[in-house]
């Protein structure tokens, strides 16, 4: 298990908002807008993994990126700051680690799964989106379809970007935050 940090007495009850879902569903757009709306830190796995890749660390995707993100989020929570994290969060292990990060730092956890229920729209987004992180290679539509993505077994807020825009999504998340 990852040491997510421990702070038995944070300065304020912070919220850890973890926004997950398959690539090209709108996670980054929503997470960025939420962080800007609330003026809280934003931690993005793709940014971390690309920085690790640029540093020359072998196989920077996956575990290293998530472990770094857990530590960065925990540090913000220890300061009493809420934080927005954006990641695919595809398996129970990563979801449990986010839960542990929140719990160890006396923070409220809000899991958000972003989906796009319209497969044609999801494919269009995957094929037409623009890279906003230098040198990041985006997954193809087929790679998105073939990705290991376990069904959720824990409570979460599900947002369908086929029927809602990012402003509506931010309002829904904000209404759910303590």
How is this structure best summarized?
The protein is of the alpha/beta class and 178 residues long.
Task: Explain how this protein is built.
The chain is α/β, with parallel strands linked by helices. Helix content is 44%, strand content 14%. Strands 2-3-1-4-5 form a 5-stranded parallel beta sheet, sandwiched between helices. α2 crosses α3 and α3 runs parallel beside α4.
Question: Descriptors for this entry?
Answer:
alpha/beta; single chain; globular; 5 strands; 5-stranded parallel beta sheet; 178 residues; 7 helices
Count up the helices.
7
Helix content: 40-55%
The helix-and-strand class reads alpha/beta
Regions with little confidence, pLDDT below 50 for 5+ residues: none
Annotate the secondary structure layout:
Elements lengths: L14 E6 L6 H12 L3 E3 H11 L7 H16 L4 E4 L5 H13 L3 E8 L3 H10 L12 H6 L10 E4 L5 H11 L2
Helix pairs in contact: 1-7, 2-3, 3-4
């Amino acid at each position: 298990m990852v040491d997510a940090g421990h702070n038995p007495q944070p300065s304020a009850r912070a919220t850890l908002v973890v926004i997950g879902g398959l690539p090209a569903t709108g996670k980054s757009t929503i997470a960025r807008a939420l962080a800007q709306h609330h003026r809280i830190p934003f931690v993005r796995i793709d940014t971390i993994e690309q920085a690790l890749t640029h540093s020359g660390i072998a196989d920077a995707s996956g575990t290293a990126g998530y472990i770094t993100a857990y530590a960065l989020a925990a540090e913000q929570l220890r300061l009493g700051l809420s934080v927005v994290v954006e990641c695919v969060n595809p398996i129970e292990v990563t979801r449990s680690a986010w839960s542990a990060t929140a719990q160890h730092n006396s923070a409220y956890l809000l899991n958000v799964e972003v989906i796009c229920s319209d497969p044609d729209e999801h494919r269009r987004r995957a094929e037409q989106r623009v890279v906003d992180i230098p040198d990041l290679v985006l997954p193809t539509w087929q790679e998105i379809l073939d990705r290991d993505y376990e069904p959720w077994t824990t409570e979460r807020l599900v947002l369908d970007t086929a029927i809602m825009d990012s402003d509506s999504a931010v309002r829904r998340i904000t209404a759910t935050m303590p």
